[in-house]
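Reviewers of the previous submission asked for a worked example of the structure-prediction workflow described in the proposal, so we include one complete record here. The input consisted solely of the amino acid sequence. No template or homolog information was supplied to the procedure at any stage.
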Amino acid sequence: MKRIFYSLCLALICLSASAQKQLSIEVLGHRGARHELDENTLSAFQTAYKNGVRSFETDIRLTADGELVIMHDASLKRTCGVDVIVEESTRQQLKGYKSLKGNEVLFIDELTAFFAPRQIRYIEWEMKSKSYTPEQLKVYCDKLYKAVMPSKSASATYIFSSFDTRALETMKALHPDAECMYITSKPIDQSVFDKAAELGVKRLGCNLNGTSRKAMKEAHKRGLIINLWPGGSIEDFQLAVSLGSDIACTDYPLSVMKFVKKKMKWVTPQNDAIR
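From that input alone, the workflow returned the following structure tokens.
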């Protein structure tokens, strides 16, 4: 009787496993790994890569002397403890500060030098440009494209993303081959579809909260590629997977990948190594 019971249990387990469709999703390290490492620092990208992360999101600003710096905020106050405005400072001045965890302010040439020889799958270069004039935008977009594209490997996908529609329009006008993504704080809805059509983009970064499975299916029907955010927990990642997102932006990429290995073996994160 026991043998029959165990045989039935095994059969049910096998049936359940076979019924689960193997899914793949891009696990995107937000600012390297925002809540696990020192965000947007070389140390963060190095450590995340060492632990198997191959897809990243980062933020770029333009300094007073025309350099491109890896920084999310307009001020260094939150990350470095000093209220210094990035756009009003030179590279030399910014290099004089360190993060609260002791890491140097990172510039784009340093980051691309790190990425260039490595097996990177996907990078979102987020343009933090809302305060820039049209002329500044032209300089910024041209510098950014020329800073990252020469070192891009043939197998990598590089995306220029922004909440600022002007930046997307400027980038496409200057470099028509640039692949762009519109970011919005809204969940997927008709207004987002309309904006994507207006901008001529096929990629959207939308709010995880409020996005429905129905809306995601409609997005895919329209040929759109979706990145859902924010990713502030393992549960957020699970929700992104269940909704059918193509990309899950997460502040915890190292933890997510470990969790998938142990608990979600029917999901394939698009990264080289899961440790």
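Confidence is low (pLDDT under 50) at residues 1-19. We consider this example representative of the routine output the project will generate in years two and three.
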